[in-house]
Amino acid sequence: MVKVASTFGRSGTHDFILLRASAIIMALYAIFMVSFLVSAETVNYAVWTNLFANLGMKIFTMLALTSVLIHGWIGIWQVLTDYVKNSGLRAFIQFVVSVALIVYWLAGLLVVWPVEGV
């Protein structure tokens, strides 16, 4: 059996489950954020800071960013595998996208985690 090293999961089924799970987490995060913005009387610095000072919100945000990382990696791998036949170009694009996704995740960690309430 040939093992593909560039997939995020162990197999196509595992990738499928990771895609669906990450999509559900991102959808729940989006629904939560939209409902918060709609239901809040006013959204100012203090309200926004207090929201993200909560440990649960920090964890939920990092879970959502991790889901973006997983979803983005599997998605770009599938698209590039289907449409970019030159293996060198495909590897370069995968590298660039991987670095960008990791930078997004780290930026989210550095922005969200040190937030304290007002």
Automatic annotation (TrEMBL):
For this protein, what is any one GO molecular function term? electron transfer activity
Q: Which GO terms describe its cellular component?
A: plasma membrane
- What UniProt keywords apply to this chain's record, in alphabetical order? Cell inner membrane, Cell membrane, Electron transport, Heme, Iron, Membrane, Metal-binding, Transmembrane, Transmembrane helix, Transport, Tricarboxylic acid cycle
Q: Which residues are involved in binding heme? A: H71
Q: Which cofactor does it need?
A: heme
In its UniProt record, which GO terms are filed under biological process?
A: cytochrome complex assembly; tricarboxylic acid cycle
What this protein is called in its record is: Succinate dehydrogenase hydrophobic membrane anchor subunit
- Organism of provenance: Pseudidiomarina homiensis
From the broadest rank down, the organism's phylogenetic lineage runs: Bacteria, Pseudomonadati, Pseudomonadota, Gammaproteobacteria, Alteromonadales
Encoding gene (name): sdhD
